[in-house]
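USER:
Try writing one entry.

ASSISTANT:
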Amino acid sequence: MREEAASIILALIFLTIGCQSDPSKPSSIPEIEIEENTARVIGLRELFNASDLIKLEYSPESVVGNVDLLRYHNGKIYIASPPEGIEQRDLVIFDANGSFITRIAANGEGPGSIFSTTDFFIARTGHLEILDRNRRRITRYAPDGSFMENIPIPCEGIRFLSLHNQDHVIYRGFAYEFTEPKGIPYNLVRNNANGECKFLHTLWMHPVFRDRAMDAGDFFFPNPNDNGWFICDVFNDTIFSLDSDGRIEPAFKLKTPDRGKKSDFINKLIEVKNRNSDTDFNSRLLELLNDPTIIKKPDLIMGLPAKEVLVSYRRESKRYFATIDLADETAETFTMESNLLDNWFVFQYDTDKFAIVINSPIDLSRQLSTMPENLAALPVNLRESLQKIDTDVNPYLLVVKPDALFQN
């Protein structure tokens, strides 16, 4: 459990600190500057007024720990979450109102079983696919939930998606699998039903991180405008687009206020690495992890109407949202600041909505009991619900409508 957590923590670090750019990458793409100093402040009342509350049903069969991954498709909410005290992740499915439907448990044996939900994907046909990194396979289920097949994959994938022809694009991000001297490649590979594999794209990071195991957060973001996906390469501050045929091209670059700090930190790490001091190296990594001024990774990238894009990330105690107009190469920035948001996580929900996950409503209830001014800002249904909590419950979801939240 601790080793996996450390791997994920290191990933967040590695995703922040820059890398060598691929010289084959086009440089003449839009560069969008995020102006944090002029961001319009969004209050809690505005957030809740633009949201719908979903309380996930709580029972012995439906209990959810922290929400690691969340998807919504065709009236169903899919959540990957490790049960308490268990390292592997189950997949728990609810309907659109939060009522429990079923659970695909980890550590299973036999047809249709999984060791752990590393990632999952719901195709437009309604087929559910679960990536099982440890068993190096994708388990496929029919829309009615029945097991169909296991699809072997040639690597330890950590994120994936299914193209329209049922080929898979797999993100393979473990440094110890590679020996290329130029750097450590983060490879995107394409795998077909016959097990044939080819590289789609390689992202490079500095060799100072060689022999370090790396994981990543959410990686493929659906883009309904182009019927494809966004890929976030924070190493090069670049957002790529991936279309339904598997073609990849850079879409735009982000210019954020922490860009210089990434370079400073990597230079410090190189100095420590050259002294062959693992203790100092790990200490520097922890220093980076605990530095609140550095953006860990955009955790939301979604297409909006009229070819706009919404990007969101956390930095220090604030969450920032930027609505980007790619045609004009401009961004309007919004921010929220509240200690109530410390343990809230953001996922794309539907094509035109995103979800904020309140992992521990009971903790929020206790906080609000000492903060009457914030309690008064909540809608009546959420306020009454939180005031009645006296035991553990499943996470709450705030399903947010961007057009309502960011209206002028």
